[in-house]
Each structure stands twice: as C-alpha cells, then as structure tokens.
Amino acid sequence: KHFDRWSLDLDFIIRDRLYDAYDETRLRFKPRIGRQFGLYWTLFTGLSLERVEVSDLQQNVPLPPGLIDQEAAGKQTLNSLLLDASYRDVDSRLNPRDGETFSIYNSLYTDALGSDATYFKTEASYDLYWVMGDETTDVKPGWKFSTGGGVALPYGATDDVPYTERFFLGGFRTLRGFDYRGVGPNVGDTAIGGETMLRGSLEFRYPLYSTTRPGTFRKAEMLRFILFTDAGVLDPDPFAVDLDEMRASVGFGFGLTVPFPLVLNFGFPVQKGSGDQRQVFSFNLAFN
What we know:
Blueprint: E1 6-18, E2 23-37, E3 41-55, H1 65-73, E4 76-90, E5 99-109, E6 119-131, E7 142-154, E8 177-178, E9 186-187, E10 190-191, E11 196-212, E12 219-235, E13 247-256, E14 262-271, E15 278-279, E16 281-284
Antiparallel strand pairs: 1-2, 2-3, 3-4, 4-5, 5-6, 6-7, 7-11, 8-15, 9-10, 11-12, 12-13, 13-14, 14-16
C-alpha cells in the first residue's frame, strides 16, 4: 500500500578497520521490521547480533584502559534489541534544499540475548533545510542546520561501555577539520571516546553554476559553494558534559550534484585539545 507500509531490512556486514592504535574486526547481522505511519513517520524494531574483536595494539603509543581490556577479552558478543524511529519531510531525498528530518536509534544490549556487555545506547539527530530568495527562482541560496546527541549507559555487571561502542567525533560527518575519530579527550594521541556526545553544525550553501533541465525551462543546481561551522563535545561519563572539552571548526567547501553528488571540504579547527588529530581536507560522495 502507498500509505502505512511495512518494510523488512536485512543487513549483513563484515568489516575490518585498521586504526592507528589497533585493528578492529566486526561481524554484524541486523534484521529490522519497519512500519510507516502516514507520509513522514516510520517506526522500526528488530535485533542487532554482533561479534567484535580488537587486535594488534600498538605498543609505542599510550592506550586507553578500555581498549586494552577489550583486546584482552578477545572476541566479544554484543547483541541488542532495537527500537528506532525516523521522520522525513524534505523536497529531495538525496540532495534536500527544504524541509527537515529527525531520527532516533535505541539499542538495549542484554545478557538475555547472550551479550557479553550490558548497556543502553541511544542516539538522535535532527537536520533542518531552508532556502532564501524569490519564489519564482528555481536555484536559490540555502542553509542547513544539523544537531545530534547520544548517551550510552552501562548497567548490571558492566561498569563501562566497550571502547569500540563509545561515541567518537571527527571527520566529514561530524567535525570537519579534524581527522576521523580524531577528537579527544585523549590518552596521548588516542581518543578515549565518550559515553555522552553532543554536536552541531551550520552551513550556508550558495549556488555557483546551474543548467537548464532537459525538456523544461527550469534551472537545476550543478555546483555550490559552502561555508560551515561545526562544534561537538564528548564526555567519558553518561549524562555529563564538560564544556572545556568542546571542539569547534570553520571552513568552506564545494558541492557537485551532476553527474554524481560529491562534496569537497576544507576545515580548520578554532578550538582543539591536546592530542587531537587534524585533517584539513575531506570529501563525501553523497549529499545529506
């Protein structure tokens, strides 16, 4: 049916990541059932069944205790119940210019499903898009405001959330101008992650070049110039925020829409901490 549809998602992932301080192997199977309510809301429920292994710790750099403990534990089973929701009301799914989106993801890691660690994790995000200019103009400057947050709360026999499952910031999705997962608090040059996370971003988007759509008189944006500012903070404890650990950056970028969506970012930290890893240039092969 066009309205109030049901959906079934079956995700199977095998992923190896080689970080500066360690290697991570992850195997995940995530079945989810979704139910759409009206035009904009969808509710999901399901399971996440994961196996995570930390290996090859670097001995020549300071390491967070949680990372050392997780490597010593070997392969860990991290199974959870899921309850997620999303709201989407935008003019374009791939390259929105007007509208808003909201999503929230809730995971309960429980020993009833055989999980080696027990904790609750929730993460929410909100994006708002709006344009400026004459209503009769097809291609207009616009803004994007994005914010998000999360908390991970251990319970039962678990004192701390496993290192690999904590929140991290840095990279083109969260804090441009910093390396991927390159934002502290840090032990040496290694981020310890957080059990609480807050982030925000504001972008101004100005069209540089547009073309006429085939068969019409309407214009379509092809290239845009972007000015942005990002900020975020991590805290090692749940439901706690130390604003002295705030990180922030400013920068500019260029976005291409045709023949495929590509964004080139140049970010510069304006508030950083000891051990943070900078990365001026980053790119993204999809708009959001």
